UniProtKB/TrEMBL annotation, chains A, B:
Higher taxonomy: Bacteria, Bacillati, Actinomycetota, Actinomycetes, Micrococcales
Name of the protein in question: TetR/AcrR family transcriptional regulator
Matching SUPFAM superfamilies: Homeodomain-like, Tetracyclin repressor-like, C-terminal domain
Span of domain HTH tetR-type: 8-68
Keyword terms: DNA-binding, Repressor, Transcription, Transcription regulation
One Pfam match: TetR_N
Keyword Coiled coil: no
Organism: Promicromonospora kroppenstedtii
DNA bind region: 31-50
Length: 202, 202
């Protein structure tokens, strides 16, 4: 079915154009018209693929989430097998922070999407589901690590999950260069080392 | 100088109108025209006080920062004297998270401001200064607590400062109701209890 493949490719090309607009010029410039220009298609063509700005944003965020998942999957393949949950959590966190170009584009999209979602019920539902999925994935890793004795049994899995996810709070500090990437990574490593009880002196 | 006082009051009324627009309708609606309507002044009057949207945003953020500082000062007065640094840090964090209406409005302003700042050099400079000030205040508290033996001397003050500030990463989770306020507060308490080495059972 070559036609369907073309459709998906065109939609992905438009999503990438939206990321570029958000990354380079900010969310307020991410109108259908601006994105059509960036994607090199007519406004009519873009509207053939996305009936509304909301539909375009939802597709672009889902596509960004898929790409992040792909990067994590590729990263997992480079870890010791089976991977240690500490390494998996570190990988997930580093892919969610704006530490390289792809992750930065996703991170900016995501931050803007959350703000827009506060005032748009359809976006809000999608954004909430996305954040809940991310939280559930981290919670599963934490619970498995507790079950397997890699995290002390007296740690509360809900609290530890939330503390790990809070580390995405480095995003504005990194974006505005208040802290450097190596400082964010040092703090993440410190937090995970303590969680996994492997804090032996230098 | 009654004229000067009037000016400041008018500017603050406009800043509050901007917060309401951002809080209720989102950043993309926060145009000069929309804010003038919300403040009940003409567009020309608003432009008399703020020559540009950027000037208005900078004033509104500075005013928001002042109000947050006022809330923290009022909170400090309710703590044991002299206040324990753990309690001060908890107060600062809870005032930075969207846990009540005023803090929520500031938090939404701040998140949108950071995103806008990425693509506007003037805003960027202001936003960076604001974040650096906040980080310095937390770092000073952490260093004092280490010096006074309230935090163990082997803790790295830079890493601990960054880990505390990262807790503002609960913002999107709270805004989208992925976690409840009491879960965020439980995680903050757990983190501070460990930092201050006072983890004794309930």
């Amino acid at each position: 079915m070559p036609k369907l493949v073309d459709h998906q490719e065109r939609r992905e090309a438009i999503a990438r154009a939206l990321w570029r607009v958000v990354d380079q010029h900010g969310w307020t410039r991410a109108t259908l018209r601006e994105v059509a220009g960036e994607a090199g298609v007519s406004l009519g063509m873009l509207q053939h693929y996305f009936a509304s700005r909301t539909a375009m944003l939802i597709f672009a965020m889902e596509f960004a989430a898929d790409r992040t998942a792909d990067r994590i999957t590729r990263g997992l393949a480079t870890l010791d097998q089976p991977p240690h949950p500490r390494d998996v959590l570190r990988l997930v966190l580093t892919e969610m922070l704006p530490l390289h170009a792809d992750a930065r584009a996703s991170s900016r999209m995501s931050a803007a999407y959350v703000l827009e979602a506060l005032h748009d019920p359809v976006l809000r539902k999608q954004a909430t589901l996305g954040l809940r999925d991310g939280r559930s994935m981290v919670e599963r890793l934490v619970r498995e690590a507790i079950a397997q004795g890699q995290i002390a049994p007296d740690r509360d899995p809900d609290v530890e999950t939330d503390l790990i996810i809070a580390l995405t709070g480095f995003t504005p500090l990194l974006e505005l260069e208040v802290i450097e990437p190596r400082a964010a990574l040092a703090a993440i490593d410190q937090h995970l080392d303590r969680l996994f009880g492997s804090l032996v002196g230098p």
